[in-house]
Amino acid sequence: MSGRRSRAVGLAAAIALAAVPLVVRRDDVLNFLFLVLLSVTLAESWNIVAGYAGQVNLGHAAFFGLGALTTRALWVAGAPVLAAMVAGAAVAVVFALLVGAAAFRLRGAYFAIGTLALGEILRITVGNVRAEISTLPAATIAGYRLAHRYYLALALAAVSVVVVAALGGSRLGLGMRAIREDEEAAEASGVGALRLKLLALSLSTALAGLAGGLFAYYHISYYPAHPFSPTWTFDSLLITFIGGVGTVHGPLLGAVFYVFLKEFLAIRWVDFHLLIFGALFVAIVLLLPGGLVEAAARLRALTRRPGQAC
Amino acid sequence: MERVSKAFGGVRAVSEVSFAVADGELIGVMGPNGSGKTTLFNLITGALVPDGGSIRLRDRDIAGWAPHRVCAEGIARTFQLVRPFAGLSALDNVRVGRLYGRARGEARAAAAEAERLLTLVGLEGKAHRLPAQLTLIDKKRLELARALATSPRLLLLDEFMAGLNPAETESAMALIRRLQGEGVTLLMVEHIVWALMDLSRRIIVLSAGEKIAEGPPDAIAADPTVIEVYLGGAGGSARRA
User: Taking residues B124-153, what's their average pLDDT?
Assistant: First the structure.
């Protein structure tokens, strides 16, 4: 899709989504769309580090969780929610820089394992220290407006898509992709790999931290360890791979497809859907490494030149 | 560089090697397998940190610098086994060098400059191909363009002609001569001795990590130590290049 056309489509979609709470007065629709938008944000943010800079971060939930933890604490204590969310993002970024400086010494699978371990350590720690469920005060529940959460989710998803799109065409994005392809050759071409990887991680975790804050603002009650669950990481990973890793549109398409299918399957088979997603993931990595974005491009090529395989 | 050394465990891969390169020169480095040629390159480009000695580029000691800083200072390289960025188009491969190397070009000018370099190395019309769609020599041309895009003061070519057929070797040599004509300073490791002798004004010979000879090609070809290293002591049958 050309830049101008995809911008026009994106803008139209954003306007349509913004109109939904005014037209549709059903909470289940808004809740569902909220989940899609939250997934878009998380997947796009994961995509920055994994898809562009090529570092498979399996500890993404840790930054989502830190954002949630910080935002919930500050907001419930009386801070404005936006300020609390920014603080949550800041905590996630500071933690990311500390961790990244060490973890980026690990390459490939070791980086993935290291970040997975880190996420789990945080989840277990938070689960022990803050074992009791976090519920909003009655006064806050009384004033709860779902539409506020929905608009915040829409804004955040739009910001994350714009950030990734801007990154794609930029000098920074090109440097990150060079690192993904061959870190040593990138260094030899003047790309400061560690600095760029830390920058990618900061951008990614800032968005994940904001998404965590949104989660804390949205849920009336949840266990504080829940947003640290590796599910958030693997959802982001699956969405990005299903949609198309390292592309702007991939996580968007992937999130819509994934959340729909997940809700549909979860209603019927509860946890059995994980097995289906596992198989789907393997199939996509093996047969369609470019994800839905590649499938769409192939389909377009086919319809443009009927009778000719591409 | 002066008295540069590097050991891996007990093996002295490069031992107290010193030499200098002047602007616009083309210097060849030769030596049998395992004589430390690639290690030497890795030391100069920062991929390895020397155990001792100094490496100076215009009065700055760059020994032990990170590779990207060495590149920004003005030393670029190609790899013995080509390493293009597989997921990026030829144009983007070269743009990386332009946007991150010594030149640090502005994004819009970088694309035009990258196109110019692709044409210079003989890849005109192939800017939007992926490296996988290029032949070996074209991949080598691409790596050369990427290295040139960083505006190097010194360009290191690591066995640029390895794996090429005779016709390709000829065109690779023509390309290197063209770079020389453009004033690029070159240091090249090469196994194809005749090509090296033909291109270089000065040759450095390494053996077991030590510099055993340095001089013009004729002198090197007649040097008894070099002949001994290459022909295993059959000093009588000196080979003329």
Answer: 93
Q: Measured between alpha carbons, how far is A231 from A236 in angstroms, rounded to an integer?
A: 8
Domain of B111 in residue numbering reads as 85-151
- Asked if A189 and B100 come within 8 Å (Cβ–Cβ), the reply is yes
Residue B79 lies in a domain: no
Q: How far apart are CA A59 and CA A100, in angstroms?
A: 11
Do the Cβ atoms of B15 and B210 come closer than 8 Å?
yes
Burial of B62 (0-12, 13-18, 19+ CB in 10 A): buried
Tokens 């005749």 sit on residue: B194
Residues B159 and B239 in one domain: yes
Q: Which residues pair with B204 in a beta bridge?
A: B29, B214
CA dist., res. A273 & res. A255, Å (int): 16
Q: What is the pLDDT of residues A25-65, one digit of tens each?
A: 888 899 999 999 999 999 999 999 999 999 999 999 999 99
In a mutational test of the A interface, the residue from B48, B68, B158 whose CB has the highest number of chain A CBs within 10 Å is B68
The CATH class, in words, for A3-304 is: mainly alpha
The whole-angstrom separation of Cα B28 and Cα B197 is 8
Q: Report which residue type is found at B235.
A: G
Nearest CB among B85, B102, B149 relative to A178 is that of: B85
For residue B86, the distance in angstroms to the closest alpha carbon of chain A comes to 6
pTM metric for this prediction: 0.88
| Angle of helix A230-243 versus helix A27-47 axis, rounded to 10 | 80
Is the model's pLDDT at B228 over the cut of 90? no
**For residue A101, which phi and psi values (nearest 5 degrees)?**
-55, -35
Percent of chain A at pLDDT exceeding 70: 97
Q: Are residues B106 and B38 part of one domain?
A: no
Give the residue numbers in A contacting B (CB under 8 Å), as ranges: 170-171, 174-175, 177-178, 180-182, 184-193, 246
